[in-house]
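ERR on first pass: missing label on line 2. Operator R.T. fixed the label and resubmitted. Corrected input:
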Amino acid sequence: MDSALKIGIAGLGTVGAALAATLAERADYLAELCGRRIEVTAVSARDRNRRRGVDLSASEWFDDPVKLAREAEIDVFVELIGGDDDPAHAAVRTALARGCHVVTANKALLARHGVELARIAEENGVILNFEAAVAGGIPAVKVMRESLTGNRVRRVFGILNGTCNYILTTMEREGISFDECLAEAQRLGYAEADPTFDIGGHDTAHKLAILTSLAFGTEIAADDIYLEGIENISIEDIRAAADLGYRIKLLGVAQRTDTGIEQRVHPTMVPVSSEIAQVDGVTNAVAVEADVLGELMLSGPGAGGEATASAVMGDIADIAKSRPGAQRVPALGTPADRLAPYERARMRSHEGGYFIRLSVEDKAGVFASIAARMAENGISLESIVQRSRDHTVRARPQTVVLVTHATMEAAVRKAVAAITSEGYVLGTAQVIRIERPIVD
Amino acid sequence: MDSALKIGIAGLGTVGAALAATLAERADYLAELCGRRIEVTAVSARDRNRRRGVDLSASEWFDDPVKLAREAEIDVFVELIGGDDDPAHAAVRTALARGCHVVTANKALLARHGVELARIAEENGVILNFEAAVAGGIPAVKVMRESLTGNRVRRVFGILNGTCNYILTTMEREGISFDECLAEAQRLGYAEADPTFDIGGHDTAHKLAILTSLAFGTEIAADDIYLEGIENISIEDIRAAADLGYRIKLLGVAQRTDTGIEQRVHPTMVPVSSEIAQVDGVTNAVAVEADVLGELMLSGPGAGGEATASAVMGDIADIAKSRPGAQRVPALGTPADRLAPYERARMRSHEGGYFIRLSVEDKAGVFASIAARMAENGISLESIVQRSRDHTVRARPQTVVLVTHATMEAAVRKAVAAITSEGYVLGTAQVIRIERPIVD
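pass 2 clean. output:
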């Protein structure tokens, strides 16, 4: 058997502690599968004295993760610190530059510095693995950068945030409001005290930026993402979607178009009979459409200490099975110096179906006016439904729900602006894009 | 750039031709991703003069695939001949023994000779890749043997045969009989003229045998599989299942139990709200439950020339990216000499829910008798429903549908035998096992 693979872990939160415990508990089993032992020889965290349920006394302790990355006697640096800045950034750069392999679960770091880090890894002939950074335990990174090699991807999309999916699933299942759901999610630990990062779609955007690069061989462009969160999704939207045979999911979507690559994160209506519509609760999913392979979907746990630790363990095992310095799998699938610049397709030219829900005054001519404004903008309708809660009472607000055939976003925006300017719309028009699992 | 990776392809049917065409068409792109060119330098097939839509004139032609494997100047031997016997078996052995990597899509060969071939590959320090052999384009093999490294698998199950899934989906969707569906599937090319191998579950069993070995680190035991095909599933079963909130799928299931590992292929009722119930038509799916990761599901194209060629291309790209002779990923996940003997758990001790549909004479006491026989065998019922098609006509056969709570297969068999011996059952009792996507 070869000499042991020495691991340094920086960051001993839920994931780091689960990883250290698992590596220790099944050390013999892993050695059998990998042909060499995997040993945690160095660790770093903020508080040395915190109880973590795992004995780390045999590992060298570092207060400073960058010092660990620079000085510890290790083959692999595992970064579980988090954040797109130092010390995570400095530690990963330092480890790669001195010829250590790196495994990280840090999506924010990769979304911002992924191309730079991939380049440093390739220049130094070491592996940069980050399976846990996208969709937690789902092996989306490996599948995209290894299994799909040679395919041209048309679209990749996914449910990439468990908090949002839990909230949307629970709103539908229990018929309760967004605010009630969020409070429950916070109580259960599925949502942070400040939930903005999740429900605003920022977390999904980080993961999507990485997937886009893997899918299309482009540089990571995390700031060039159209972003809409789920905070304005109401129980009325969910009910209207269900009536029409759809479910609402927060999707991250990247798609090749004639004018560039779309990257967008927004609430999306998907047909209730599609596989992705059945992805419930905190479960995540990644779907990809590739020209040779066809359509592939992966679903599983997108977060959680154990699932994330499993992905990190798989990344470490890949390194243990490979020859040192022999790495030819580029971190982002395409070698860093061959990545194409990202060309952004504008949302104005996005093409798809739209769901539009309007609350309008109950007066003659409103329905006809709405239909006329849509027609003037060249939008053909799949359905238009007018509803009032109580037919016995007149002069109450009426709800009008429109579903368009595939059309241009610019046209929808113009039509909605024209309708709004007529003065009979109460509140704001709700517009939700429809995503079909299969692009026609 | 390193020297080109030389490929020999034996077998130029749909998959082989699609593979050769794709490798030629995107040669530059693959070279960029893999760091070396991939060149088809030798080919073999039965008929040299058949038109295949791809120019193979630059490749050396061999009439005999074993001769190609033995003599051609190649780094990788791609076996697309099929069959568990010679020449496929001899050719793969020959190639591995002389130090060539092998990529194969041949499930029958692996189900029968997989352990032997894995051993030869490991002894010679070469790679044996077979992603296309299980569930076509779905990267189940890579995920099982690489991403899940270190996990203990509890259960793996899947929809592994597109023909069966197409038939079951179409029966439900169009309300037509098994025979009508099979005829349509044959017309569309989704089923063979002799469909026994598919609809009898044998093809699923081959794939399951490979998955079991990958999941549990055991020797392949393709003959130790409980097997039931879909030929006795009627439209009445599908309707009764739908009424109860289930869909019928042909699943291959391998599961660790107290008495060994169950391997079984049979029609299965899955909850209609589960992800796997939404896997329609010729699409395949593989689901796995692992102790650290949790539950993961992959779905995608299980067959077809292009999807299969994509999986083979991914296997070749993995080899192109690796150092020659540096392979430490064992073909079956666990090194061949460490594979545990397969210990079979008997179907009699299988535990789960059961759906039982009986056609009975319409006379007093039948319902009570059925309930009594179930109770005597310690079986508790989730539901029992008696139906007649036409309530105005008496003395017609009645249908009784029972759904049991989790119980032992032996008890169900005993109860059904007791009920049948009462004399009021018309025809044969239909018994279908229920599979829950999450094991409680």
